[in-house]
Each structure stands twice: as C-alpha cells, then as structure tokens.
Amino acid sequence: MAVLEIQTNDAPVLRQKAALIQEIDADLHPFIEDMFETMYEAQGIGLAAPQVGVSKRIIVIDIEKHHPEYPRIALINPVLTLTVGEELGEEGCLSLPGVRGMVRRSAMVKVEGLLPNGNKIEFDAAHLMARVLQHEIDHLNGILFTDLLRPEDQELLETGPESCEKSGDENEDSLHGNK
After folding, report:
1. What element of type H or E holds 77?
2. What is the count of structural domains for the chain?
3. Annotated catalytic residue: which of 136, 165, 170, 172?
4. pLDDT computed for residue 156 by the predictor
5. Known catalytic residue: 86?
6. Sign of the alpha-carbon torsion through 176, 45, 6, 167
7. Are 70 and 125 in contact, with CB atoms under 8 Å apart?
8. What is the domain range of residue 138?
9. Torsion, Cα of 102, 163, 98, 5 (10° steps)
10. What is the DSSP string of 160-178?
11. Please, how many CA atoms are within 13 Å of residue 26, restricted to the half-sphere of its CB?
12. Regions of the chain short of the pLDDT cut 50
C-alpha cells in the first residue's frame, strides 16, 4: 500500500466532475486500499478519488470508531437517491488544510453504489455518516464544502486554537481536518 498525495486548494481536479467507473478491474482494488491508507495517514474519516488526483467516482469512508453501526466502506459510482431534513455541522477537508466551517446538510440520506466486488449496495445513513457521504459525493461533482458556507452560519463557528484541537472523538458530528 502507498500513501498518495492529497490535492489541495486550487488543484483543477478538485473542481472537475469525476468520471463514472465503467469496469471494476484488478487495478482498482490496490488503488482503493491506497485511498484508505492515505485517509488514515492524514487522520481523516473520508476521502474521494479526486482528492488524490484521480478524477473517478470512488469514495472511501471509515467512521466505525465513532459509529460501529457503519463499518468502513468503499463506494464506486455512489449516488444520493433521497435526502431528508437538515442539520448544521462543522466540517473541514483534507484538501483545504486549516479551513473549517459550519455547513447545512441533509440529516438523513439514502445512497446507492457499487462495492469493490461489483455488488450493488443501497443503504440509509444518518447524522455523521450522512454528512460524510454528502461531503465525499460533492467532491465527485467538483464541489467543496466552502461552496456551501452561509455567512449567517459562520457566526456559530468558534475561532481560536482550541477549536482546532477538537477531535472526532470529542465532537462526533464534526468533520475534523477532513471529510
């Protein structure tokens, strides 16, 4: 496994709509493992392929430490098929180091996609998992969380070094330093 380079700030790949995966081949599995390795190395809980310079519709998520009901997952060609409700939560992004903001997202979602073995999967997710799914799928569409910021919500975001010290353990609905 290898740690891949995370694209940051104005990297063009972060603003492109990622290509659908037409065929799951042998090269895809090591790439997905490299994505997980990269995400863990960066202390993230989610990562999209464009964030490592690959414009393909692949995401990896691991919030099992915070929510055991959601085991780690890699999704190919994920699509949100239903969104319900709204909640405000703090987000950051591995591709936007040091940037944090309060983002309104759907509280619950239904997602479908393919697993790396080619099997179709469809499931419901709430709260942190719903937020991470939306954040990562946005990356596949060239959208960064900063595009969704509303000035009125930012008044709620604490500033100062102590707000950067919070980890996902202390504030499970926060996306610390990543998605």
Report:
1. strand 73-84
2. 1
3. 136
4. 62
5. no
6. positive
7. yes
8. 12-164
9. -100
10. SHHHHS--TTT-TT-BTT-
11. 0
12. 160-174, 176-179
CATH number at residue 84: 3.90.45.10
Please name the amino acid found at residue 36. Answer: F
User: How many percent of the chain have pLDDT more than 90?
Assistant: 80
Q: Is residue 145 part of a domain?
A: yes
Specify the pLDDT at position 95: 97
For the chain, what's the residue count?
179
- Condensed to tens digits (0 to 9), the pLDDT of residues 53-85 reads 999 999 999 999 999 999 999 999 999 999 999
Q: In the structure encoding, which two tokens stand for residue 71, read together?
A: 């085991």
CB 39 within 8 A of CB 47: yes
Closest CA relative to residue 179, chosen from 99, 113, 69: 99
Instruction: Please tell me the predicted confidence (pLDDT) of residue 158.
Output: 52
In a domain, 173, yes or no: no
- The residue whose two tokens read 């780690």 is 72
Flag whether 40 is in a domain: yes
100: tokens are 């944090």
Lookup result for tokens 């319900």: 84
Q: What is the DSSP string of 14-79?
A: GGSPPBPP----TTHHHHHHHHHHHHHHTT-SEEEGGGGT--BSEEEE--TTT-TTS--EEEEEEE
Does residue 174 form part of some domain?
Answer: no
